[in-house]
Amino acid sequence: xxxxxxxxxxxxxxxxxxxxxxxxxxxxxxxxxxxxxxxxxxxxxxxxxxxxxxxxxxxxxxxxxxxxxxxxxxxxxxxxxxxxxxxxxxxxxxxxxxxxxxxxxxxxxxxxxxxxxxxxxxxxxxxxxxxxxxxxxxxxxxxxxxxxxxxxxxxxxxxxxxxxxxxxxxxxxxxxxxxxxxxxxxxxxxxxxxxxxxxxxxxxxxxxxxxxxxxxxxxxxxxxxxxxxxxxxxxxxxxxxxxxxxxxxxxxxxxxxxxxxxxxxxxxxxxxxxxxxxxxxxxxxxxxxxxxxxxxxxxxxxxxxxxxxxxxxxxxxxxxxxxxxxxxxxxxxxxxxxxxxxxxxxxxxxxxxxxxxxxxxxxxxxxxxxxxxxxxxxxxxxxxxxxxxxxxxxxxxxxxxxxxxxxxxxxxxxxxxxxxxxxxxxxxxxxxxxxxxxxxxxxxxxxxxxxxxxxxxxxxxxxxxxxxx
Length: 469
Ligand SMILES: *Cc1c(COP(=O)(O)O)cnc(C)c1O
Fold this sequence. Notes:
By secondary structure, the chain is an alpha/beta fold. It is 42% helix and 15% strand. The protein is built from 17 helices and 15 strands. The chain has helices at 10-20, 28-34, 60-63, 72-84, 97-109, 123-139, 161-166, 170-173, 191-194, 200-218, 244-254, 276-280, 307-317, 330-345, 348-366, 403-415, 436-459, and strands at residues 39-43, 46-49, 54-57, 114-120, 148-152, 183-186, 223-228, 258-262, 286-289, 301-306, 373-379, 382-387, 417-418, 420-422, 425-428. Strands 4-10-9-8-7-5-6 form a 7-stranded mixed sheet, sandwiched between helices. Strand 1 (39-43) and strand 2 (46-49) form a beta hairpin. Helix 4 packs antiparallel against helix 14 (330-345) and helix 16 crosses helix 17. It is globular and about 65 Å long. It starts with 9 loop residues before the first helix and ends in a 10-residue tail after the last helix. It binds pyridoxal-5'-phosphate. Pyridoxal-5'-phosphate (PLP) binds at residues 63, 122-124, 127, 156-158, 229, 233-234, 262, 264-265, 290, 301.
C-alpha cells in the first residue's frame, strides 16, 4: 500500500526534519541547507521516497534488512505480541516466552558452545556489555588487572562511549574524550590500501602478529580480550586475507585472551553461512549480534557468550551488576524469532549461498574491468569496490579522500540505487533475498553511476592520482 498521500509535502517534511531531528553521523548545518531525502515505504529489495522514486536498496537499510522490506508475518507477530505482553522485564527473577524462546533458538543455531545470550537493544549496547562482561569474568577469578581490551584501527563497534572506544575510527575518538582507558588498537588487515608489495597472505600474517606484539607489550596477564569484525563493515568492507583469522585465533588461545567476534553485520547469513565465524573458521568466546537478528524490523542486539565462560561465571561470578530496561524486549524478541523462523523455513541463507551469491560474485568481479575500479571484492552479499585514477598503482586520488566516492554515491541515488561510499570505496550489503534479475538491475545501475561519476570527476578536475600512504 502506498501511504504517500497521507504525508505532508516533501518540503514540509524536510522543514520539520531540519527544525527538530538531529541526524546521526551528519553535519546538521549542511544537511538542513539541502534537505533530507524522505524514505516513506519499502517492498522487497526496494525503498520508495516521498517524491515517488523507487530505489534499489544495496545496503539493506544499514546492513540489516536481510529479509527485505514488507514482510507481513513480521508485522503480525509484533501486533500480536504487543497485545499479549508489550513489556516485561527480566531483571528480578522473571522471564517471558519471547525472551526465552529466542535465547533457545539462538543457542540452537549458533556455532560452537555459544549457548547463552545477554540481550541488548543494539550493537553498541551489546559491545558495552562485552567490555563489562570480560572484565567481570577475569576479576571474578581473582584477576582484576586482566582488563585491557585490544581492538583495531578502522574497526567499528558502535558509537557509545564503550563501542566507540573499542572501534578505531579516528573521527569518533576525536569527539567526547574517547577512547576510554584500557583500550588500544592494532593495524587492520587491509591489503589493498596498506599491503604494498606483499602478497595478501604474507600481509594477513603480519597484521595478525601485531596482536601478539601488543599483548606482549602490555603483558598477557593484563589483556582481557581482543575484539574484531570477521569482515570490517563500516571501515569499507575489508575482507581479511585467508591467513589472518587462524593466526588471530592461535594468538588469543596461546595468551589466554578472550576473542570477541563482532558479528553485528556478518551474523545471520551476510557472508553466505549463518555466521561469519563459520565462513572464516573463528571460534569466539563472545559473539556480538544485532542488525540482521531482526532484519531491522525491531531494535534488538545481544552478546552470545560461550558455555565455557558462563560455567565459570555461574560458579564464581556472583551478580553481574549490569542490564538494560529493554533487555530481551518481548516485541523485539518475538520479531527476531519470526525473522529466524522465516529465514530457516525459506532457506534464505542456503539459497543465496548456492545461487545468488555466486552469481553476484561473478557479476561483481566484472566491475574490476571498469577504468576507475582498482579492486572489486565480495564475500556473500558484502562487497566493495576501490575507486582509483590509476589501477596498476592502486593509487588514491589527489583530491580529499571521499570526493570522488561522494560523486559516485550521488549518481547512484539519482539513478535509483543505494550504494554507500566510505572514502573512495563504494560498498554494498543488499538484502539476502535479492534475486538474479535484481542483481542484473543492480549491476546496470552501478556501471552507469560509475561512468557518470568518473565523467564528473574528470570534468571537475579531481581525477588525478595522489601518493599512496
Ligand atoms: C552497526 C554496528 C555496530 C553498532 O550497532 P548499533 O546497533 O548501531 O549500535 C557494532 N558493530 C558492528 C560491526 C556494526 O556494524
